Each structure stands twice: as C-alpha cells, then as structure tokens.
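Recall from the previous lesson that a structure prediction takes nothing but the amino acid sequence as input. Here we apply that procedure to ABM domain-containing protein from Prochlorococcus marinus. The sequence below is the only information supplied.
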Amino acid sequence: MSPTFLNVVRFKLFPGMEDKYFNVVNKFDVEGLLSRYIAKTGDHDYCFVGLWKNEESIAAARPKMIEHLDEVRGFMQELSPELGVTDPVSGSIVA
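The prediction returns the following tokens.
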C-alpha cells in the first residue's frame, strides 16, 4: 500500500540523550504508520518523517503519538517558547 499522508517533526536532543531517545522511539509502533525515518540534521538536531496510510490514520494515532512524546519529552531541548520541544507539520503527499 502506498502512503498518501506524511508528517515531519523537527526536534533537538540534549547532549548524551541520543541512546535513551532511540531506545524508546525504536519501540514505537502504531497502526497506519507505514514507515518512518529519522534524519540527523545537526549536532543534536533531528527530523522525524512518518509515512502514513492516509490522513485518517494519523488522526486516529494522535493519542498514541502524544503518549509517545510524553515518554521522550525529557530528552528534548526546547526549540522556542512558542514551539516547545517539537516543530510538527503534516500533509497530503502530492509528488
């Protein structure tokens, strides 16, 4: 099945928290999430990309995604007072 929706989340980990973060994130699995990638974009900067079956799948997964964020929030640095620890966006795949 080809994904039709994706989400991208930018975040920054505290130094020394990478192993703890990846131990938790590698256990995260939710229905509708077809694949996920994490890119290292700086010394402690990362970007999560999730490919979803459809928009309904990600909407249904939001409670579990919030639970997961609560598990890893302590490993993350605040990006800004307005954003908090993550900068998330999502949308339909168009190309």
